[in-house]
Amino acid sequence: MKAMVIKRYGKDVPLQQVEVPIPTIGEKDILVEIYAASINPVDYKIRDGKVKMLLTYQMPLIVGNDFSGKVLKAGAKVTNFKIGDEVYGRPRKTRIGTFAEYLSVHEDDVSLKPKNLSFEEAASLPLVGLTTWQAFHEILKLKPGQKILIHAGAGGVGTFAIQLAKQMGAYVATTASDKGYELVKSLGADEIINYKQQDFEGILKNYDAVFDTLGGETLEKSFNVLKAQGKIVSVSGLPNRKFAIQNNLGLLKTILFSIVSRKMTALEKKHDATYHFLFMKPSGEQLSHIKKQVEEGKIRPIIDQIIPFEDAQKAINYVETGKAKGKVVLKMK
């Protein structure tokens, strides 16, 4: 089968199209013929070696973290799917590789795709949907009437997050440029901060929560908008001691993460707030909840471009510019 691989870590390492064997399946796995896959920042973070503290991969590595397609084979103990089912999913982190013609994936990591979406639209949702679902339902426990700041509202995660937060009854502020203004407004954002002209931390106050996808200085400034006992969830900040303990990462990484996240710990104490680093987990069950919301018209996918599989490198380069509004999807079939 055709697949896009990297052969080593590094920022300038190109994707290479190669021929590799079709993967085998275990008794709880399904073999999916991939119709579409989406580009996510984690794809180039993996390439750059930025997640090596959390995950190490053997090279060459087939990249890609979410997909849609059709079930070709089912393992002997698979109970939820049959041959021909149209599915979407995010494989567990040890089994990534969606930039390929076929994928072997555990049935627990997959859901039937929303019936009202194309394969390209469905492929745009698993990673951003699960990330947001876990941030809002499991960590923030967002309640109606609460105020949340969602950074980069016109991005892949942001466009989904605004919609889910509104469905949960929250008041949503977001940051966007002039080019993203109309999009985030159409998704339901209540307050829009033009980050090129305004300082969000000087305008927004007494927020219950912040959802950060940018990290760095933006994350640090976000503490200023929180009320006492507010919460920040970040997918781009540094993992901390709490994350290491919750994920049973062992003493060495617990100490290491305590050291690298000292600034976050100091900001937590200064602002009487809590900081959570989120490394999303696959869940077919949560994708089924998202499927229901999509089929009911409560959430819609936002796609910037659909790009042929052969041009995967161009697609990653474009997403890295930060200019994409919504998701960029690779079309296989």
Describe this structure in words.
The chain is of the alpha/beta class. α3 crosses α4. It is globular and about 55 Å long. The model has no long low-confidence stretch (mean pLDDT 96).
List the helices and strands and how they pair.
Elements: E1 2-6, E2 16-19, E3 29-38, H1 41-48, E4 61-62, E5 67-74, E6 86-89, E7 102-106, E8 110-112, H2 119-123, H3 126-139, E9 147-150, H4 156-167, E10 171-176, H5 178-186, E11 191-194, H6 200-203, E12 207-212, H7 216-222, E13 226-234, H8 241-246, H9 250-260, H10 262-271, E14 274-277, H11 284-295, E15 303-308, H12 312-320, E16 327-331
Parallel strand pairs: 9-10, 9-12, 10-11, 12-13, 13-14, 15-16
Antiparallel strand pairs: 1-2, 1-4, 3-5, 3-7, 3-16, 5-6, 6-8
Helix pairs in contact: 3-4
